[in-house]
Design a protein that fits this description.
Oligomer: single chain
Largest sheet: 2 strands, antiparallel
Strand order of the largest sheet: 1-2
Strand content: under 5%
Order of helices and strands: HEHHHE
Number of strands: 2
Distance between the termini: 46 Å
Radius of gyration: 23 Å
Helix content: 55-70%
């Protein structure tokens, strides 16, 4: 049983080390953006370029508003998704336990080697569970980030 827990812990820690919010940022179209008024000469704000003659906020206030919204929405998205690393660890732990139980049962039935079956099942379950939960958390992060920006009046392209 100690070997099973050790295998699950090692796989879980490896998955958690690889899993994190990827630094992904949504692409925001600032042309005629509701948040910036009727902005005719705007450029993508993610590279902090000039907004031209912005009627609502002046020259640089539109850029500051989008940057502030990006920071706030990123924090909200991280909270809403539960954090990719946390969710990956939970998925790996649950998957490892379920895999160990299934593997032990199969190993006992097939060759009388429940311990080996449990170890293999724990490893496979931790990998599958961690990957599934990590991907779901990442998708939730992206949806929450986009939704937050849209609710603040920004046109999100992706």
């Amino acid at each position: 049983m100690k070997k099973i827990l050790l295998v699950t812990a090692l796989i879980s820690s490896g998955l958690v080390g690889c899993a994190s919010q990827t630094g992904w940022k949504p692409t925001v179209d600032t042309n005629n953006n509701q948040s910036f008024g009727n902005n005719q000469n705007s450029q993508n704000t993610l590279n902090n370029q000039s907004f031209g003659n912005n009627q609502s906020y002046g020259n640089n206030q539109g850029s500051n508003q989008l940057n502030q919204d990006m920071k706030e929405c990123e924090a909200l998205a991280s909270e809403a998704s539960g954090g990719t690393a946390t969710e990956t660890a939970i998925g790996a732990g649950v998957g490892g336990l379920l895999g160990a139980a299934g593997g032990a049962g199969i190993g006992a039935l097939v060759g009388g080697k429940a311990g080996i079956g449990a170890a293999i099942g724990a490893g496979a379950g931790a990998l599958a569970g961690g990957a599934k939960q990590g991907l779901q958390a990442e998708d939730q992060y992206k949806r929450a980030f986009n939704s937050c920006l849209r609710q603040r009046g920004h046109k999100v392209a992706n």
